[in-house]
Design brief:
With 199 residues, the protein is mainly alpha-helical. 66% of the residues lie in helices and 5% in strands.
Length: 199
């Protein structure tokens, strides 16, 4: 009995790689969605007196974020997380074929019920989640993946971007609030604090 050469050339991805890829993608896409929301609501959102307006703005801003999330594998069946982990999405009947954009989008819509998806992936002998079954896709190892140091550098880059985001997007809104400005003004005018810090 001879082995299928296609299976030898394109081995299936391990569950560990898939989970790691999902976590990286989720981190990146969530970061993008939060960035879009922050840009939409503006730096002074903490002083917003109309919560319903702010909520509507946030919901509208999240729509393109969700589109990006569900379309994350649309570039050659490889998302950022999959690129880093060296795996790719392919047609289950033809590993050389990249699924259509619609199928890749449909596959990722099921991420909404990610707890169930993890359970199905863990319990499935074919290493498939519901999205794979419905879209008729399979996740394989990328035999032409970049070298490991390059992928590790990309992962470190993602971490750096996160800290830059926290610094600029999370700290600046706080500094623009009336409470922060009032507290800073009080400190600057407090003679006791000025005396103690000057010593």
């Amino acid at each position: 009995m001879t082995e299928n050469p296609t299976e030898l050339t394109f081995p299936k991805s391990s569950r560990k790689r898939r989970i790691a890829s999902f976590l990286i993608d989720h981190f990146i896409m969530t970061l993008l969605m939060v960035s879009i929301v922050f840009i939409a609501i503006g730096p002074n959102f903490l002083d917003e007196n109309n919560p319903s307006k702010m909520m509507i703005t946030m919901l509208l801003a999240m729509i393109p974020g969700f589109v990006l999330y569900f379309a994350k594998d649309s570039l050659k069946g490889i998302s950022v997380g999959k690129w880093i982990m060296g795996i790719m999405v392919r047609d289950e009947n033809n590993p050389n074929e990249i699924p259509s954009f619609g199928r890749l989008l449909l596959r990722n819509v099921f991420i909404i019920i990610w707890p169930i998806e993890f359970i199905v992936l863990a319990a499935n002998d074919q290493k498939k989640r519901l999205g794979d079954k419905v879209a008729k896709t399979v996740v394989l190892k990328n035999t032409s993946k970049p070298r490991k140091p390059i992928r590790i550098a990309a992962l470190i880059g993602v971490g750096v971007i996160f800290f830059v985001f926290v610094f600029f997007f999370a700290s600046n809104p706080m500094k623009n609030t009336d409470a922060y400005k009032d507290a800073l003004s009080e400190i600057e005018q407090n003679e006791q604090i000025i005396t103690e810090t000057a010593e």
